[in-house]
Amino acid sequence: xxxxxxxxxxxxxxxxxxxxxxxxxxxxxxxxxxxxxxxxxxxxxxxxxxxxxxxxxxxxxxxxxxxxxxxxxxxxxxxxxxxxxxxxxxxxxxxxxxxxxxxxxxxxxxxxxxxxxxxxxxxxxxxxxxxxxxxxxxxxxxxxxxxxxxxxxxxxxxxxxxxxxxxxxxxxxxxxxxxxxxxxxxxxxxxxxxxxxxxxxxxxxxxxxxxxxxxxxxxxxxxxxxxxxxxxxxxxxxxxxxxxxxxxxxxxxxxxxxxxxxxxxxxxxxxxxxxxxxxxxxxxxxxxxxxxxxxxxxxxxxxxxxxxxxxxxxxxxxxxxxxxxxxxxxxxxxxxxxxxxxxxxxxxxxxxxxxxxxxxxxxxxxxxxxxxxxxxxxxxxxx
Length: 383
Hints:
This protein is of the alpha/beta class and 383 residues long.
């Protein structure tokens, strides 16, 4: 999700390869699309978004795994707040999309676990985020039952994916949402640049405590993923892989403001994931050559395991959205990032305070291909 005004060697890999022995090709450098939420298309945005993604030739998609899936995607009114992660991923709304053989790589954006935030409460109109993120509270992890539940839910989610999709050849990535924004009350940019926002955020939480909590979350999540993969290995469930992803959303501006960041203060302190994802809103507002340098630096830093988890252009604000789409894709290919995910399949309402128009979609609110969407699909077809 955008939070910039107007612009915007791991043992785990070896285990994943062992579980998937002989059935998975090395990761290809693919363009993908986010089947995001709260779009303006009137209807089932998950099913219709998947249909359009499939028709457009996408093999890589990203989907939020959240209890509020029905309301978020215009499916219905029920909220599955009591469902654990393995149950959520098996809901018919998700299963219909995830089992489609057209989608070979699927990144799931997951917030904490089912007990660690209130997914059935109203979203913040400024950020589209649900409230009460207890997985960012250091005190939450002082309770053994909470630590055990986080670890267990990710183990069960991982195992369920292996069991359900064995033999499919699919790769599933378990990712967080924009880590730097998580550290700073859902908007690192405003924390660094808006004194009033910063004061309000600091009145609610302590940055060092949030850092401690988030590190613990990633350790527990990785332990759970490893446990689920080990169980799948013991049971001989092959032909599918689950990989871990840690997403960052700031490269320079937090460091320049002398503030902790995911890149400097979280990732070096936890078990290295299979991929480091960059939600690239800070870089795409810069010339394409700078975007290339940023991505090239990330690739070198993480030994070829970088990806772009989000990028896009608001054609309602940016008259050069088509040209910038083409140049951004070119930069990403030059940097040889493994995956690049466009935000998102449909247009969405503007977010309060961002001065955007919400016109990021490859398709508009009538399901018609937009000009940046056509440029994106043309670039995809030419690869």
